[in-house]
Amino acid sequence: MIKRVVVAGRGSGGFDDTVSPFFGRCSSFCVVDIGSGGIATHLTIPNEASDIPGSAGVVAAGNVIDFGVDAVVAGDFGAGSTKVFQKAGVKQYILKDILIKEAIEKVISGGVECVDSGEIIASQKYGMGRNKRKAPEKSLSGFFICSRCGCSMPKKDGVLEMECPNCGNNMS
Asked: What CATH topology corresponds to 4-123?
């Protein structure tokens, strides 16, 4: 059962805003608590990762996970943010050209299916981003990713987790 959902907003992130076509580069998030009768509370928060030079999706995903969400909605997701959500058990929903309030209603009513995170990761190459660079030789599965700050570090043989060199969070 979904108790808290975050929707990536194109503008202010309010109910009358449109769902952003991009998760990591959205301007704001609408954080919605779901009660037995539907929407219980909501608030909007700016996406502090939207203007960082790289890995905006991974950093934004880490920030969203810190909100304690069960589900996230955007027009599309990159492989980096998807990997973070997959590890945290957060469901992803892709909805395009729709108001945030309508997107929330679809998620609550079950009118939309969550996406298969494996398909998103398989269909995109890590590091492709907006400037379409060539993907690194190693796959995303060869990296530790910090869910708090988005730092990524190459995995070493036999090491299952490590401490993030930036923020001290446990990376897995």
From this structure: Nucleotidyltransferase; domain 5 (3.30.420)
